[in-house]
Amino acid sequence: MVERRQTKRLMYVALFLGLAALVTFLRLLPVGGYGVGPGVEDADDLAIGFSLRDLPAPDVLLCLTLAWVVRRPDLLPAPVIAGYFLLEDILLLRPPGLWAALVLLGSEWLRGRVDRFRANTFWMEYLIVAMLMFAMFLVNRAVLAIVMTPQVPLDLSFLHFLATVAAYPLVVAVSHYVFGLRKPATGEVDALGQRL
User: Fold this and answer.
1) Is 188 part of any domain?
2) Domain-embedded: residue 80
3) Which among 85, 154, 162, 163 counts the fewest CB atoms within 10 Å?
4) What's the pLDDT tens digit per position in 163-177?
5) Alpha-carbon distance 60 to 180, whole Å?
6) Could you tell me if residue 51 is inside a domain?
7) Mean per-residue pLDDT for 59-71?
8) Closest CA to 9 of 84, 68, 83, 88
9) 165: containing domain
10) What pLDDT shows up at residue 34?
11) In a domain? residue 31
């Protein structure tokens, strides 16, 4: 039984790392711009001055990490989160360690409150996660401003935040229905009688 539990944990860690690698690979592809898709160049786009291509893509990896920590914190250990986000900082040429530290602190804050999330509805969870994301984005911008690191404009950063918050329910739905990752019920135990 212990081996089965460890195997399940390793399978979910491998799945997370595979999904994270796929998301990072897609972010590194030279598809032009920072946007979400090909965009539609029509009269409306020209009238407002930008196309859909100019809209920032959501941070799917952040959504995935926070959704998995809320649902099953035992399946996603902190060293995996810290290590992968540090690697992503290096690959995406961000200041090494800043975003990784913020994601680790945010995920550990959520991990410490998992018992409270079990009784909450999804919409309460969504509100708490959105506020946490907002705090993480604000702290990131503040630290980068303090050390005078060049940043994207505030409006683009805010659109990135909104896209990330909007993507969270979709990531939760995929995690639940495709990967079978759900919140355990209050008092639920595994096959060994250990509390989930």
Assistant:
1) no
2) yes
3) 154
4) 999 999 999 999 999
5) 18
6) yes
7) 94
8) 68
9) 2-177
10) 45
11) yes
Distances from the Cα of 136 to the Cαs of 72, 107, 142, 149, 184, in angstroms? Answer: 21, 11, 10, 17, 27
- The Cα 193–Cα 28 span in angstroms is 44
Locate 157 and state its tokens.
Answer: 């950063």
Q: Which residues pair with 195 in a beta bridge?
A: 189
Question: Which amino acid appears at position 162 of this protein?
Answer: L
Band the pLDDT of 46: cuts 50, 70, 90.
very low
Of 47-56, 76-85, 177-186, where does the model show the most confidence?
Answer: 76-85
35 DSSP 8-state letter: S
**Cα four-point dihedral sign 122, 123, 125, 126:** positive
Asked if 90 and 46 touch (Cβ cutoff 8 Å), the reply is no
User: How distant is the alpha carbon of residue 40 from its chain centre?
Assistant: 28
Count of the separate structural domains present in the chain: 1
Tokens coding 139: 């702290």
pLDDT digits (tens, 9 = 90+) for 108-152: 999 988 888 777 888 999 999 999 999 999 999 999 999 998 888
